[in-house]
Amino acid sequence: MKYIKSKCLQKAKGKKKGKYLLTLEVSDYDLDMLENLAVTYAPWDYSMFEGKLGVDKKTKVGIEVLDMKPKYTKWIDKMWRAFWKLWHEHDEL
After folding, report:
1. Residue 74: which H helix or E strand, with range?
2. Distance between CA atoms of residues 73 and 46, nearest Å
């Protein structure tokens, strides 16, 4: 995912929220990673529990004790940087 440009359509005033028109470059890889993050257990690393748990690992281990696989960590970092550029460009504080 790559941030290209953005345009402020409406500034935030009082209860009104700001609106922006974004241009991002998104690949199939980005969409696959986002889908995996949202609906599967693929991003989570169960290697620390191998051999210790039965077949149904996901119900025995809380997601809060797991780390993400490096592939997903790098992708989230790239996505965060793209949105940080947007925030930095339009932040008025």
Report:
1. helix 70-90
2. 15
